[in-house]
Amino acid sequence: MLEALRASPQNIAVIYLDSADKAAMREIDDEARRRDVRVEERDGAELDALATGLRHQGAVAITGEFSYLDLDTLLRKIPADRPLLVALDEVTDPHNFGAIVRSAVAFGADGILTLKHRAAPVTPVVVRASAGATEHAQVARVTNLAQTLDVLAERGMDIVGLDMGGDLRIEDLEVGPGGMVLVVGSEGRGLRRLTRERCTAIASITMTGPIASLNASVAAGIAIHHASRSRARA
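-> structure tokens emitted (234 positions)
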């Protein structure tokens, strides 16, 4: 850990240290702060989960290097019954991307689809914004989202786009046996035309206050939560 900090601190997004063993972790803590690497405390169980079975000795570093899946691999990993995916249509803000990943992991989505181009990659900023959830996420990058949605529709998945002008309420949608793909548009223009044309439904989130629209990551979090609850009821 110390060697990695000294050699390439720019590749480390955050270091999680055992909150119960501060004295033993002091050297790593001091070195990380000197290198301007973010440090957070976690309990032993959380470190075990982040380390995914590897020995961590009280410290886990999350790096900016991320192992993406391809679409075929992701589809082999998701459940056959009512899978839930989140697809991002040119989401370029790394903070939004990280927040969406965090919501997807927290609410049990089975995978996230993003674009290889014109989209934010998983970087240290995304890792920090997700609060480490990227380490639990299955993220696949695709070249053409419209074609990917065609493939998923052929597998029986409902393709649901999110838009404040949608004619269905997200609360009224149910995740069927074939599963659902929630499609989140970009921060600026929302869903692109070809993406929208692939959607079997366009859903909106009911808002009763004076604000007329939601940030992409907030809208995605609400939609993922509703889809997760629908799947749990099935």
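The mean pLDDT is 90.
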